[in-house]
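Issue: copy button drops trailing tokens. Both records pasted manually instead:
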Amino acid sequence: MESDFSSCKKDELWGIIKKFVSLDDKIIDAGCGLGRWVAFLSRKNYKVLGIDNFKQLIERAKRFDRTLELRVADVLKLPFKNEAFDVYLSFGVVEHFEAGPTEALQEARRVLKKGGIIVLETPHDNFLRRTKHFFGFLKRKKKRTSELQFYEYRFKVSELKKFLKNLNFKILAIYPKDLLLDNESIGLWSDFPFLRAKSSDPFKLNIIGILIKKILKPFKFLFSGCVVVIGRKI
């Protein structure tokens, strides 16, 4: 838990949060898991409440720090009044609903004040990922639907913009997000096994992977494993 907490200051999300969120804002981290961002932001004097549907995760987070504001709750049915928060954080959550993210985003809009900010991070269906899957689809035999099990969606930037605009959010900014170190990448490591280092650590790249990441660095949207969209409720 401590290592998860300390990793926040090295996460690109921290720079984004500082840009769009003030210390006076009332924040909800919806789907907070073990509460690493709740813990980190609380220690930075932000007013943040974390909720998660898994009681075990909330209990573990409370054992780590009993001063944290944490509750067991469902992001699809939040136990808060309308317009209760200034900022809604959602990191790696809405992609896990097989029916799509709309219901969760509707709840986000409901609990946000007018002018409130949503910071939404999801897996990114980037260009390299789509290209690889297209050619892979041509080669492999189709599996029967019964053999497949849903885990998550990966979204294109255009899809996320559409979801938010349909709910009357104004798009303020969009960021590609991956790991900061030159020898690590969520996108390249996940989609191209031949770029992985011979290491038990996830997301570590080999020499070829490091070189490719350096070449593509100015074009981060091509390979980023995640994307972050900032919206304002209007």
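Record 2 (pasted manually too):
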Amino acid sequence: MIRKFSIDEMKAELLLASRSKNYMPDVAWVPSDFLGLHKFIGISPIPKVWINQDQLEPAARQSAMVGDSYMGLPLFLGNHLMLFYDKSKTPTPVTQWEQLQALSEKEPEKTHIAFSSRDMYFFSAFFSLFHPEIPLDQIHFKDHECMNTLVFFHELVRLNHLGSQCNSLCSRQLFIDGKASYLIDGDWAVSDLREKFGSNLGIASLPSYRGIPMKSLSAGKVLMITKTALQNPAKRVMIKQLLTMVQDKAFLTKLINEHQYISASTEVNQISIQPDQEVMYAVYQQYLQSQPMPTSVRVSFIWEALARGVSRYSDGMPKEETMLYINQLIDRFSKKVEGS
């Protein structure tokens, strides 16, 4: 039997089922950041001999591993942010935030770039400009660089008249309506934007700042296996067969062609995604520049802590207090879960 859940419902269902010892699925198809909760939802490591490791995109390995173990089998990759523009109006896109800041000085009444000011996944990309070498889950959010990230993000929101409640649908509509020249959005928006702009849809790298490239997080969809399923001899055989099937190159190629996914297989991607497929090729190239979502449990708490902190900063809390508050929230949540 196959059951469908929204992402938020699925996480809650798995946590509740594991704690109450109720029905648990044998296999679940989940976002890779779920793997950080493996101790709490009964996920089993997958035997490495069941995985075609040489076939995997390098970032796919990172998105599926916790420590030295594969806690999931990556199938599809993406969830990364990119810069979109209308080629009919903007033949050459900007490459630097300094250029966008200059446009705001020249035409302060305009929204030059739109992005979600409300979704912390968008905010997280800005940390790469001030902490370029540190994974998100290893950042200590009370340091000076993080304060600069917060101020920089908030100032861009102000300069582009986005307000604190503009989500990804709001920012996308600004771009579609021609009220913003550029848009930062994810690969999930490509279909809608392609329908609107057709061959005029341009895709570029996120703007750099002071010479430092801006890198979005990326994630994947992975198959995870529960411990109870893998301990059952009959189910173990069937699960191994399933994993063999979904790693088949013909199967992955079919899914790329039918659904425009980036697969976890480097070879399949390089054969199936060619430069003449302009949009899909650009999406893939931007994925290669992204940084994999960490799989530690700490990541699960960062989003809520950032959201609360950004809200308080917008309401007037000083930057030093805001970042200390964010750091304390993450530490408190982490200790509570680790001690449970």
